[in-house]
Design a protein that fits this description.
mainly alpha; globular
């Protein structure tokens, strides 16, 4: 019985490792793609108040279809105009079907 448990556990570990490897590859592909694709054109929106703080990540939250992604692209365009390299401005869309199954624990493991 102990041998059966070991085999079962090792299969689960191997399967999780493979899935993490696939998720890692998909996440890296997504990041690389976000850095190599030009930003989409959009109407510039006026910004009120501070939207960024030095040394902090920017997260935009809100209801569906409110323009969050467009707003993030605007922030990225502004930062590019300020001279920040595009390689420092990645964008991850977690609604991408290739990232389905990625959990908070997986993401923290991948980082």
């Amino acid at each position: 019985m102990i041998l059966a448990r070991v085999k079962s556990t090792s299969r689960i570990t191997v399967q999780n490792t493979i899935e993490r490897s696939i998720l890692r590859t998909r996440l890296i592909d997504h990041l690389v793609n976000s850095l190599n694709v030009p930003l989409p054109e959009a109407t510039e929106r006026r910004l009120f108040g501070p939207i960024a703080f030095p040394g902090k990540a920017t997260a935009v939250i809100g209801i569906r279809r409110a323009g969050k992604t467009t707003f993030l692209h605007q922030i990225r365009r502004n930062r590019l105009q300020q001279g920040i390299a595009q390689q420092r401005l990645p964008h991850i869309n977690f609604e991408d079907e290739r990232l389905v199954g990625l959990t908070v624990n997986d993401f923290s493991t991948l980082i």
